[in-house]
Amino acid sequence: MSRLMKLLVTGLVTLLALATAALPAHATTDSARAAARWVAANLAAGEVADYAPTTADALIALAAGQDPSTTDEVATLLEALKVTGPDYAAESVDGAAKLVIALDAVSEDPRTFLPGVDLVRVVADGVKPDGSFGAYVSPFSLGLGATALARTG
Predict the structure, then answer these.
(1) Residue 44 pLDDT
(2) Comparing C-alpha atoms, which of 84, 22, 3 is closest to residue 51?
(3) C-alpha to C-alpha distance for 76 and 95, rounded to whole angstroms
(4) In the list 7, 26, 81, 125, which could disulfide-bond 85, CB 3.0-4.6 Å?
(5) How many C-beta neighbours within 10 Å does residue 32 have?
(6) How large is the average pLDDT for residues 65-71?
């Protein structure tokens, strides 16, 4: 293969790679916004925010959507977590970890969000001497704990 042909093929492959790499990012952003809008619409219909795990999931989805039009929904969810969050965090360190991730995602301080409860400390204290974490040790619970601690330093 001639040098010119190699350059053309390399250029074409690079161009295709750049073109296709740009598409998923845009599609992903649109998908995240669509998911956030779905959460916001269902929150308005009263289908979210009465159960702490779902409330935390909804906050994560709204944060990922980065849609300024969902600010009111974030505020509503945060108010709901002030009521349901303490029991959820007390039930399991996995729950505390999920709350840390959700609160951090919407720029709330998980150390002070619940009066008298430092959720980051609860999560850190939940790591066992062998490194395992969670009520039922699994990759999922370990992922929650590790992510919560990594996001909060």
Answers:
(1) 66
(2) 84
(3) 20
(4) 81
(5) 17
(6) 88
Structure-block tokens of residue 77 = 């969810």
Region for 2 from its dihedrals, namely left if φ exceeds 0, alpha if ψ lies in -120 to 50, beta otherwise: beta
Number of neighbours of residue 42 by Cβ within 10 angstroms: 14
Closest CA to 111 of 95, 102, 122: 122
pTM: 0.79
78's tokens: 């945060």
Q: Read off the amino acid at residue 131.
A: G
16-35 pLDDT, tens digit per residue, is 333 444 444 455 688 888 88
- State how far the Cα of 141 lies from the Cα of 98, in Å rounded to an integer: 9
3-state percent helix, strand, coil for the chain, nearest multiple of 5: 75, 5, 25
